[in-house]
User: Fold MerR family transcriptional regulator from Streptomyces lavendofoliae.
Amino acid sequence: MLRLNVSMKSSENGGAGTLSIGALAARFGLATHVLRHWETMGLLHPGRDAGGRRRYGADDLTRVATILILKEAGLALNTIGSLSATVDRTARYKILRPVAEELRSRIAAAQTSLELIEGGLNCEYEDVTQCPNYRRLIAERVGPEVRPESQ
Assistant:
């Protein structure tokens, strides 16, 4: 879910089934100041109880989970804010396309790293640099040999 603007505020359900800022933060392993910061950035819009304390409902849980997933994907908070503020498909594409390309690149690099590590784990040679898989991966990284120019 990329759309963060949910019309119902937490306070509209009368406070039933809502969480305090501390309970919401604990649920996601966050510090409460993180949620307050996201609120100042316009990413969260918690309801308030009669005493003025923040109350978070199901929609807020969805927003926090979405923000965390998008941050893990590499999006900055201001980008997440821009994304949540738009319903235009073209604008969403312009925001997400470069992020998707960067994520694909990171995944490819992680796959190569994992292949090297697993090759080391499965290598039967005393010296891992002698393993055929290791040598292939290193050769791919180094590229073609550079030959001295003839004079």
About this structure: Residues 125 and 131 are 6 Å apart (CA to CA). The beta strands are 47-48, 54-55. The chain is about 55% helix and 5% strand. The radius of gyration is 24 Å.
